[in-house]
Structure formats: structure tokens, C-alpha cells
């Protein structure tokens, strides 16, 4: 599904190299977690996969179903099946949440050669997804993320993912700023989307998220490279001992 081969990337403005040879393969149906200390390149990895223009890839490939997405614009990557859930979803005053959701969904349908959903069909689908994620009708009536709590923003973003049904979901520190109740709601939404034809890359600082979204594999990113991989027990080890020993062993 998603293959990252010898990926090197730097900040476009000043040339600072962040990723220094990332290799990662996520097959269909699997959830992989990336953990690592601050400044290790975790969020940069998610941004580079999504195509954020502030970063320049200098070497390597990112393949989605065998196709090199580095040659695609961000919207083309989204249409190909990528979805990025941001650490800090932004507020967009003046853009109604429902308008945003309908525009995004119909753009994806158009790219797939499908007809746009009618208003009644769209409303029905949104209400079903909103109910599953404890999103109120009041939230749906507001401008996108404006006045939302951290948990509401994350639930809204997971609803977007549920509507778009991507092949590969990338969650960049989705647990940031969430209390335990909001975390469980968000995790339940992600788990409901797990399936044989969809993969996930979950980026997090803390093992607590992985109690709810249990990964198939955990990878440690340090210094722009993956320095250790293991099963879910690796996350427990990191929680108990920290990163120092693993980073020292990799040096």
C-alpha cells in the first residue's frame, strides 16, 4: 500500500535537512505507529507524504499502490487515497462546516468518475457519521472549526476521514490536547475505519493513544531515520524507559 524508500527531505527555505533516509512499508489492513522525541522528524514525515510545499524531497520515493506520489500535487494525492489529520486543525471563518464537507466529498467523487451526492443523500450520510462521533448538529452549523474545542476539532477531522474513506490515513499527533473521553471517541472513530483495504500511520508522542488504537507495528524515528521497529510492546517499553537507550544504541 504505502512504501517509503530512502526518503530525504529538507526545509525548502533554508535547506535544513530533516529526514535522512526513511524506509517504511505499510501493507493494506495494517496500522503502524511512529514514535520519537521532539525534533526527530515525525510531523515532517506526515507533511512530506501529504505534499506540503514548505519541504523539498532531495532523494527517495513515496509509493501509494505502486505509484510515486511525489510527482503529484497535494489534491491529487488526496484523490489517490491519502488523508492527513493535522495535529492542530485550523479554524476557517466564513467557510461553513457542511459546505466544506460536501465540497471535499464531491471533489473526491468527481475524481473517481462518480456523480455528486444529492443534498438529501449528503445530509443523511453526514448525520450518520456525526452521530457515531458525538458531533452535534450545532457543530455542523458553525464555520469550520471556529469556536471548537480541541476534542471537537479532532472529532470533526475524523468525520471528514470517515466521509472520504481514504486508502491511507495519516494521523499526526491526533491525541494532542485531548482528554481521555475525547481520545476514546476519536480512537473509536479510527477503529471503525480499520479494514483489509485501508492502512494507517499513527504519529504520537505517547503510548496512551496506542491503548485505544492498537498498532500492528511501532517504529522509533530519531535524527530523521527509523532506528528501531517492533510490535505494540515497543510502545510500552518507550513509555517506561524513554528514548535514550534506543537512540544511543542506534548511534
Give me the side-by-side strand order of the main sheet: 6-9-10-3-11-12
Order of helices and strands: EEEHEEHEEHHHEHEHEHEEHH
Query: Roughly how many Å is the radius of gyration?
Result: 18 Å
The share of residues in helices is 25-40%
CATH architecture: 3-Layer(aba) Sandwich
User: What's the β-strand tally?
Assistant: 12
CATH fold label: Rossmann fold
Our count of domains comes out at: 1
What is the CA-CA span between the terminal residues?
A: 30 Å
Major β-sheet, in short? 6 strands, mixed
As a percent range, the share of strand residues is: 25-35%
Mean pLDDT: 91
Describe this structure in words.
The chain is α/β, with parallel strands linked by helices. It has a single domain (2-250), classed as P-loop containing nucleotide triphosphate hydrolases (Rossmann fold, 3-Layer(aba) Sandwich), CATH 3.40.50.300. 40% of the residues lie in helices and 28% in strands. It is built from 10 helices and 12 strands. It has helices at 42-50, 74-80, 97-111, 119-132, 137-141, 150-164, 180-193, 208-212, 233-241, 244-250, and strands at residues 2-11, 17-26, 31-35, 55-64, 67-68, 82-85, 92-96, 143-144, 168-172, 199-203, 217-222, 225-230. A 6-stranded mixed β-sheet has the order 6-9-10-3-11-12, with helices on both faces. Strands 2-1-4-5 form a 4-stranded antiparallel β-sheet. A two-stranded antiparallel ribbon has the order 7-8. Helix 7 links the parallel strand 9 and strand 10. Helix 6 (150-164) packs parallel to helix 7 (180-193). The longest helix is centred in the middle third of the chain and has 15 residues, at 97-111. The model has no long low-confidence stretch (mean pLDDT 91).
